[in-house]
Specification:
The structure is a homotetramer. By secondary structure, chain A is α/β, with parallel strands linked by helices. Helices cover 46% and strands 17% of the residues of chain A. In chain A, helix 1 links the parallel strand 1 (7-12) and strand 2 (35-41). The termini of chain A are far apart. In chain A, 53% of the residues are buried.
């Protein structure tokens, strides 16, 4: 952290409706994270949103009385130069692309989801080359910076960065912090009294230890059939005898894998009843931006909380604080495996508890990995590895291997048709797949 | 091999219609495998078949002029005592159980197959305790004997024996030898000019090297979309662009995983059109036994070849010969992993090329393991480990975990219903699951 | 920690001259470690010392005004029953045995040292069976207790406990905390601003990362040829070009391995000049006990600090505090390897940074293991494994293998003679080796 | 093997006195190894010897009546072009350098040996860069050729080639074949009835299985205290209780490690009594060359057998035959570890049983690795890795690390002095260490 006048922080995709969350966090924890410059960066097409949210950010800072300079720019390189922390939150192809990711698979009887399955794969193919491009700039202009990657599929994007660049990157998700908060509330203890062990990948983890004040609460958690469920995933109760013998509390994303039939039926019905979910999200966003435009608004509006990204800001600010101060506390992050999950390659990205030192996260060894979960972790990682390689090469055969080997895709035949249709639908965002 | 007067060989399930195949092999290779006693063992319920096939065996030996004594018995312990080689080929629950294994899953839209999926799992639950029981006798009465296990699911049964007994056991399948034969014919070379590397599990392998006279023929094999197909699996052509980028020639059983939809449709149609396949097999067997009863028949009848078990005899006799003589030749066998597939446990049973020394098979390291195949291997092995543990404990929760985690089973919901119905249907053969 | 009235702590070898150190720590940190009962245990032969030091302990507690009950006993089982923490500090054979450990090898031109080489091996052979015996009591009477083992050779003793008992044991040494203190002083920073990565075994580690406020100070440390040297090891300067390319700051015990000739010469000269060091230590102890007898003394005497065991108390109390409170801080401990040093077995005991959770230490992965250090670590661990097995079996052949394979022993010939003489000299303490 | 007119074989260091051995083998096995061209290559300084031995080779071929063309050349590139097999047998610095390798260490009380210890290290430093240079030519001119490396230290040279080039190289030693021959003679069985498992490195192996006709003869071998001893190593009997509990028959080179004192005394005495052994060898060679000059000599002279290189020719010709014909037989070779010894890196060169396929050797997994041997293997491999890196970089610090970490070198102090003197003595052959 060379900048002794304070930190330079860059938010790529700064025009996102989530940005006020982040800004609020930066203000609240300024004593521990002395930011001097905050750069919000976006692309030309997002300039209007950038200005709207950026001006709200400026008003929030002004109200706080802190001396943070807020910059709004489309000049990514200028923003990155000399940065201490860079965070990314972007959506290549915007909500329209998400809409296609979620609906095209449904036509083939396949789960339509924005971070896993064929939908998540398309998001990875669109996003990875853009992120790698940003990383080239970071390597040149801020080689010591930490890149906090929130961009989904966060595990795959982080793995691509780890494999193809020298950027110091960490993938982040709000699910782990959400679980801790819930347990903290349920048992009425401070979060630092809880030790929860996460095993698996981003959006594909099992929590195999839940110690509250040193006491094992896992059996209790596994007898709770409603389980831990985020609001953005349809409620489907777990089969009690399955849950109790699973060996770990499943991530809510695992319902796509373990209850594929019910989840698919629900998605198909939702689409018929409510239309494309991406359209709904679009409306929520439009309303938020309308609020943000109010020149008298100088704090994060309540409505943002309903948006679904709870704890994103907390996760990001916590990590920056710990890296900056070398607090050696434990956080659940997406980092290189390096032997932690002994059946995956060293350079696979996994979601795992880490001690956050000043020189980066050190993953903690896993004390229990139930037999049950190994095959599915490996099956999904196989898909991820193939899809990442397809994303950086534009190789259609690899893309077909990736999609066929995804556990949610039922056959080569379906994979082949889905792939052709989805690649075509994303043509504008997949230059590597449509070279002449 | 203590018996210097010649070898004692025991065939458990000796009343099988395949036995004349084996006997023919023993006669043909007597010079290299000097058998003195051949014991055919079966259960009371199979006594009639044992006598029928056993008397044919006696006539075949008589015709050969060799001094082999053939014994027919239901006294398993007497047969095992002091044996040098024991082979098993049994079907707990007989063809009726197979019929149920193949048809019940179809009602739930799941593949019905006798060695994999829910059907194969039921076969494992029925068979493993019986085999372990036999192994207790071998440990006591013939601790130095080699047990050649043909009983399906051969990989799972062998893994159970490796984990729970001290018997020297090797699992065997006719598929690898069949592949070598086909390549030998296609390129007009002797089998010993071919090096084919098998990666994976029993009935779940990919052939990742096909060297003919030292030349790499893999690309050629991967461009053959009809692929290598045994007669007992419906013909479904491979997608050419999938096949060429898969990295290995897939076992024909992989069609159940890669073309689940088409294979399922075919099974459902077959059932409607031709009825239960087990019934058809039953008719074929009945006809064979009618032939065997002919007191003038003293050789293996031609009709047996159509039965589908080509090369079983050759595989068994080859292995016995090599163990007996310590020939150090290479055979593809089912043995303990011990680090060969680096992401599976040491005690997992895998299908792999081995050098057959006098003291048993030494597996050869794999030179290529395509990323593509890792996830599926691990997913199926996860199911296998759970199912084996369920089989030896009679634990229904474990059985549910096993069935749910099988890649051919679409959800906990389906697994739960299928499990209950199939356990009930097999009640007579699953004492551990129906204890009071 | 079931005891809500406060903790029960047991010190086995409570009559040690170090005990006042421990008691002082317990008093100082009582707020974080609410001790209710302190049991000092010793054997009959040590009863006088136990009473002397125990009465001092009682006076110290009284002076503090805390309500801690101090018990002095030779009834080990009564002491252990229901304990929360047990620490051991014992010397089987007392200082006389140490004298022999340090002097007999010198006759053969071999390093005489109390924790490594032939001397350390004898200490291990004497001590391990006694510790395992204590562990049987703990398994029965306090199965949830944590055993903090300071008894040298601490790594080997802890490995024996991990391998042969179910006791939750952690090995401890004061060297790591001493290094941190020194760096803290040198750079004038708080200890929690330092991240030092320890690689290796107890008394055989290299420090491969020294981050002070996140800055890499390793090159600076490796250019300091006088290095870090404890007062109880003769000063021998490191060769500067060797040190700078070694990849880690060597433990001072490594001088026995890297400067064997000079260290041996020094030991031989010392013996001639000053006599047996154990005798000197004995005198220091006698003087300490004379001080302890003073009924007006009610605090730790200054003279104890010169004794050489600096930081022992701090290490012990820190660890108990962190286990009790689940502070998740980082401490350097001796625990089971479980994959951290990838070339050693999972059940080897290593010295490594750990996060101390309420349920025990989780070792942190190593970020750098220089090629240079691997062979020596493995060579010493090989000796340790063989010696531990010899200690629990009393097998002389294993003992010979252990001694011959110790890197400080030059040949089978020397090992054989040394072993015979040293076993005989320790006959009274090695019942397993002298059975009829 | 593209050359359908017959094979082109190149012997680098063709002027060696061993060459007639090789030529005799080529003639004897011509039916299985149809050589068409034999190129003997040497450097200018060796031209006279090349012509002498080369003309003998021509007379031997002529006598055989085979149509093999023998070429004598100093044009290495011309020789290599299009070669099928290349073997190397060279001595950079000739016998004079060997003399220094063997005698300088003795002055410091360190073993002087041409393939291990400081002497072997100097040989490695001189040799590796020359071999890598040859490999550049092979990569360009004969990329499909097999390089059989006999040049000592064969394990280290082969590891350097595996790490720094793409040449298909195999290291070879005559010790394993010698052991098999001895067992074959002792038990009066054919070599193919013996399975001996070699564990370790070149000149540092233990034989942990000796099966003769499937029977375990290891205990018998371990009770033979005179052991297996080659004529070029002084006879020192093994300690019987050490040998019987070692877990494997030690290579005779292990006497340098296990009986360092006696071996050193013997070397020092020999030097005083007989003078430099390299001088003796030189005389033997001179006499051989005098014989070779005889224009009437057209077969290998009996005297060559006394020279000490028994079975070199057999080892080389066996390997070429098996590679050419793809015989899948088992030979003990020096190849990349790739997981076989689980504590060494994948790219370490080990000595191990291999199945020799047409596409190269496949190492066989080890069935027993005694704890005893692990530390020493790792310690020596650590030295080897460091020395190889020193050889290719000319880095003196690395060279000091390598020498200090060699188990035969007693301290940094000795290593430092020895290194300086030996580097200086080899200045002419170490351009990388003496750059300006």
């Amino acid at each position: 952290m060379p900048n002794n006048k304070g930190l330079k922080i860059v938010v790529i995709g700064g025009g996102s409706s989530y940005t006020p969350e982040l800004v609020e966090g930066f203000i609240r924890f300024h004593a521990e994270l002395p930011i001097r410059e905050l750069w919000l960066v976006d692309i030309e097409a997002g300039l209007h949103k950038l200005n709207t949210v950026g001006n709200l950010a400026k008003r929030m800072v002004e109200r706080s009385g802190l001396s943070i300079d807020v910059y709004l720019t489309t000049d990514r390189r200028k923003a990155i130069e000399g940065a201490d922390f860079i965070s990314t939150q972007m959506r290549v192809g915007m909500l329209e692309a998400r809409g296609r990711d979620e609906t095209i698979p449904l036509k083939y009887g396949v789960i339509g989801q924005e971070t896993t399955g064929p939908g998540g794969m398309m998001k990875a193919l669109r996003t990875i080359p853009v992120l790698l491009d940003i990383c080239r700039d970071i390597e040149e202009l801020a080689p010591e910076a930490w890149l906090l990657n929130f961009t989904n599929p966060a595990g795959m994007v982080t793995e691509a960065i780890l494999k193809y660049t020298n950027v110091r990157s960490i993938g982040l998700c709000n699910a782990p912090i959400g679980f801790i908060k819930q347990i903290s509330k349920q048992y009425e203890v401070e979060p630092d009294r809880i030790y929860a062990e996460f095993v698996g990948l981003n959006h594909l983890h099992w929590i195999t230890r839940v110690d509250v004040n040193g006491e094992d609460k896992l059996p209790e958690q596994l007898s709770d059939k409603d389980g831990f469920t985020a609001s953005n995933v349809p409620q489907q109760a777990w089969d009690p005898r399955f849950l109790r013998s699973l060996g770990g509390v499943p991530s809510y994303y695992l319902k796509y894998f373990y209850m594929t039939d019910a989840m698919l039926a629900d998605q198909q019905q939702s689409l018929l009843r409510d239309g494309n979910r991406a359209v709904v999200v679009k409306q929520v966003e439009d309303e938020l931006f309308k609020l943000y435009e109010d020149p008298d608004l100088n704090e994060k509006p309540k409505q943002l909380e309903k948006r679904g990204g709870a704890f994103y800001s907390e996760a990001a600010v916590n990590l920056m604080k710990s890296l900056y101060n070398g607090t050696n506390d434990i956080q659940t992050l997406n980092v290189a495996n390096r032997g932690i999950i002994d059946f995956l390659p060293d350079n696979a990205c996994i979601e795992v508890n880490c001690v956050v030192t000043k020189n980066g996260p050190l993953p903690l060894p896993l004390t229990k990995v139930p037999t049950q979960v190994k095959g599915l972790i490996h099956a999904v990682k196989t898909y991820e590895q193939l899809a990442i390689e397809a994303a950086v090469t534009g190789n259609r055969d690899l893309a077909l291997q990736a999609m066929t080997h995804h556990p949610l895709v039922p056959s080569v035949h379906v994979a082949s048709q889905l792939l052709d249709e989805m690649l075509e639908a994303n043509r504008a965002y997949l230059p590597l797949f449509f070279q002449d």
